[in-house]
Structure formats: structure tokens, C-alpha cells
């Protein structure tokens, strides 16, 4: 299955691991790359630029195949030295970077000079057009179904992807709601060149998180997510647990402040969920695709199954409809 993305990134399958805070580590990324997709480690998971440099070295000890680094540019209570993280990527010879959140414009000259292909995550066509104008090699278009930050327009992938395909000339990666071969086939039909998966890769053997989290995703249905921080125009889709319900209740009150919510939505508390398996220790991101997760395979099994199922669907069912 060859697409503009497989050609651009030098990968075998049009399947990409999305950047995931606390989860995007070397073992999982290397497994995705070894399976023929594109593994991605998450820069800010590693705390310091030096720790990111070490993690890049670990990935390279596990695979010789292409992989990328995610850099999420968001307002934080504690200042982040994004410039230092970018310099680590450049010095390490990284060739693929996924950016998310704010525009990557301040770093584009450095990325371009280093020959780095930038994939920017967008939740709207207007933002994707801006990314294309900035010189991004591709965009990851997030539908409203996605985990994490779906933007404020609430446009699902069924509408957003074809709109993006009509407007853009650079390759498109479909993100949000993908977890099986049907999703991959649908994304390709809607104009995308690959799929980006986060939540689905959580429920794999190589994901370095507590088994309780993986099993929770297997047990969940499509309604097991909540939208928080809507009143601050910083919407996030997370797993619906006790903390999520508390945050939603506070926001419904109408006068909740960010200072009041900050202790509840703390990233460190979210990290405790993955470490301890206490599903109510904090907030943790999960997409509506949880309803499609029914097992905890290896990454190789998952990627192979998705691609094989998509190919069979295209050859047998869709082609068969033409007689």
C-alpha cells in the first residue's frame, strides 16, 4: 500500500503513532517503526532536552527504521525551553518532527535548514492551509473524535478530511477515531494518505503503561470520554473517570477558574494513572475509538492486522460493489 506519506517518510505502511505525553517512549516508537509504520517519541515526556537526546539514542539502538519526535507547543504554567528541545532534534539528526498546538513558525527556519520534514497537527482547514504555507511537509488533520485537543470547531473527520483534501496540495494524515482496517480504508477514501493513532497504541503490549489502563480501554465503549476545559477554549477529550466528572461539574457551575481546575488536570497526576494503574488518580487522554478496542496485541500484530484488513476491504468489499 503506497501513498504520498509512505513515500515522503520512507515507511512501509501508512500507519503513524501519534505523539502521546507520558507514553511516547522509545520502546513503543521502535516497535511501531519495526512494524513498518512511523513511531514517534514525545519530546516533553522526557523532562529535559538532555533526557530527550538520551531517548533518541535508545530508539536508534532498537531500530534502524525511520522514526520521529513530537513537540507540542502549548501554554504551560511552567515555562518550557522549546528552543533547546528543537536544537537537540537538529543535533541528533532527526529527520521527521510532528508539531502540535501553536504554530511551528518560529522554528521552521531551523527545521528547514536541517532538512527536517515537519508534520503539523491541525483541527481545521484554515490551520492546515497556514501550515502548508509555512512549508510543512504534511499535516495531521484531527477530527473531533480524537483524544487530547480536538480544537473548538467540533468538526468530525467525515466532513473535515474531504474538506482538507480539497484545499491542500501536501499529504494529509487522518487523526482521531482510527483503530482498525475499516478506519484506514475510510481515511484513504476520504482523501488522507495515512492514519495517525494514539489511543489504539495505548492498548498494545509494548506501551509502557499499567495493564489496568490497557484493560480499561478494552472494557470501554465509545461514550467513555469527557470533554473538559471547554469554558477556557482549550477543549481536551479525556477518559471519563471521577476526576473528569468533577472538572465537568465545576465548569458547568459557570465561574470555575483555571487556578481551581489546575490541581485536578495536572499532568503529573495524569502520569500517575499510567504508573500506578489507579484510573482515578488524574486525567488521562483517550479518544472515542476506545469503543473499537477489543484486545491488547503486540504492535506488530496490530499494524499487520490493520493493513491486511484495509487491503481486503478495498479489494473484496469495495471493488466487489462495482460488480
From TrEMBL:
Ranges that cross the membrane: none
UniProt-listed InterPro entries: Aldolase_TIM, NMO
Species classification: Bacteria, Pseudomonadati, Thermodesulfobacteriota, Desulfobacteria, Desulfobacterales
Pfam families, sorted: NMO
Protein name: 2-nitropropane dioxygenase
Secreted recorded as keyword: no
Species of the source: Desulfoluna spongiiphila
GO molecular function: dioxygenase activity; nitronate monooxygenase activity
Keyword line: Dioxygenase, Flavoprotein, FMN, Oxidoreductase
CDD domains: NPD_like (cd04730)
